[in-house]
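Q: Sequence in, structure out?
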Amino acid sequence: MRTPPPLMALSGTAFAILLLIAFMMGANHVAARIAFDHGVDVATAVTFRSAVTALVVVALLRIYKVPFQLTARHRRALPAMGLLVGIQSLCLYSAVARLPVAIALLAFNTYPLWTALWARVVYGQKPPPSLVRAMPVMLFGLALALDVLGASSGLGASGQWQQIGAGVAFALTAAATFGLALVLTQHETGDLDGRLRTASTMGIVAVLALAGVASQGGFQLPQALAGWWGLVGLTVLYGTAFTIMFTVLPRLGVVGNSAIMNIEPIFALVLAWAILGQAIAPVQVLGGLVVVATVVWLGLRKN
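A: Exactly. Output:
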C-alpha cells in the first residue's frame, strides 16, 4: 500500500460506514461459528466466502472499467499474497471454530506487531517508536484477554492452555501471515488498484480453499437450517463489507483500513454473547479493550 496520506476529519457518514464495516466483519465471524457448529468445515466456508467476494469485485472492475494491467513485479507478488491470505483465512476461521469469537479476533489483532517484524526482517525497516512503546501494552492486554494463567476459568495455566492452545496458535498464525501480506502489499503492489488486488487475492484464496475441499472428499455442507443461515451470513457479510471498503470509502476520502474498524472484536464480543451465549470474564473484557484501544491508537497516530 502507498504511504498513508495525512489523516482527514471523518464526516458523520464516513464514520457510520466504518462502524458498519466493523460490525459486519464481527458478525461474519459469529455467522461462521454458527456454520461450524452445524457441520460446515473451514475449507468450505473459506471457499464460499472468497469465491463470491472475488466474483463481486470482478464485476465491479468491469462496471468501472478498471484496466487489468500487471507488471512483472505484480505477477510475482500477487500469488504469494494470495497464498498468505489463504493461510490467514483458513487459520482465522480455525481459531474461531475453537475459541470464543472475540478472543480469536483479539489474538489476530496483534498483526501490527507481526507487520513491523516482517518489515524489519524482509526489508530492513526499523519499527516506529510508537509501535515499540505499544508492544508491551498490547501483549499485556492480550495476556489478560486469553487468561493465560487460567485464573478466571479456574483451570490453572496448564488446563487453560490445553483448552485454548490450538485456537490461539491458529489465531497467531493468521496474524503472522496477514502481517507479511500487508508488508508485501506495501512494497510490491502499492501502485496497483485496490479492487484489482482484492479480486486477484480472493480468487487465489478461493482456488486454494477449493483444493482443500477436494482433498477431503468434497464440501462439508450444513446439517441443519441454522448452519445454512450461518454459511449464507458469513458469505454475504464478508462480501458486502469488502465491496463497501473498495467502492464507497474511496469516494469519501477515507483510507480502507482505517483504525476505526479495529473495534471489530468489540462488536464480535457483543454479538457472540447475544447470539451464541459466549461470555468471558470481566478481566478478559478489560484485556480486550486494552488490545483494541492500542491498535486503534496505532492506526490513528501521526505518520
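The radius of gyration is 19 Å.
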